[in-house]
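Dear colleagues,

As part of the handover before I leave the project, I'm documenting each prediction I ran so the next person doesn't have to rerun anything. This entry is a single chain, and its sequence is reproduced below.
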Amino acid sequence: MTTAARSGGHPYPIRPVNAEELDAFYTVTMHAFQGSPLTPEERQLVLSHLEFDRSLAAFDAATPVGTAAAYSFQLTVPGLQTLPAAGITWVSVLPSYRRQGVLRSLMRRQLADVRDRGEPLAVLWASESVIYSRYGYGRAMWHADFTLYRGEGALVKNAPADGGLRLRLVDPASVLPELAKVYDAVLPSRPGFIARNESWWQRTVHDPPDRRGARARCTACWPRTTAARAATRSTGRRAAGTGIRRCLTARYRSARWSAWTPRPAPRWPRTCSAGT
């Protein structure tokens, strides 16, 4: 189905793109967000999880000038349940085509698709949150980062003692099945968590050296023994590796593991928007 972005002599029709149009589709986002061209590895990663039937573009002749895509998620909500949710992404318009109704038409087309699919939620991380309120989105949560430096944290007094627990540094990709077990165990109890399939796990641990900047490689901390892993899961505490962050080993004692009491450095929260 194709719709026109605006009426008049030069309409910009909207339709889903296909795999052969991925490079042109990505070029719009690259210009809008000042990104870099995809490497062959990154291109394959995008192809593995991009849903082309939900990847819309507004066209000027054969050239995409605006984009909006969505991922089909299962999102945990309060009440120990999950709901279908559209994860909104790839929203961009070329600078030379702004203020011509392209974004408005893309958003309307996308939300109509969300409604027709029976998804009660559309969620996104907003790079510019003021844009999305006009389309029905609003703040859904606050996001805070905690940084713990050496000497600034201590074990709480009632932390369980396990003299046999030892941690080892591993490549996250080598323990994905174990990471997935822990993640899935806490998924129902953490509102805002999104169920991950294989392609999303691969995206989570993707850590190309040229994108690290001054940061260390992505590393996971993991108990050495099967018994220790089972004990970690049975207590309901998340193993450090489930966070999967760059330089994770410097952060795992933060609020993500309840046995530690850090002194958080103040940070401005990051906005997460959600709409129905």
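Residues 3-143 form a domain with the Aminopeptidase fold (CATH 3.40.630.30). Residues 46 and 246 are 20 Å apart (CA to CA).

All the best with the project,
I.
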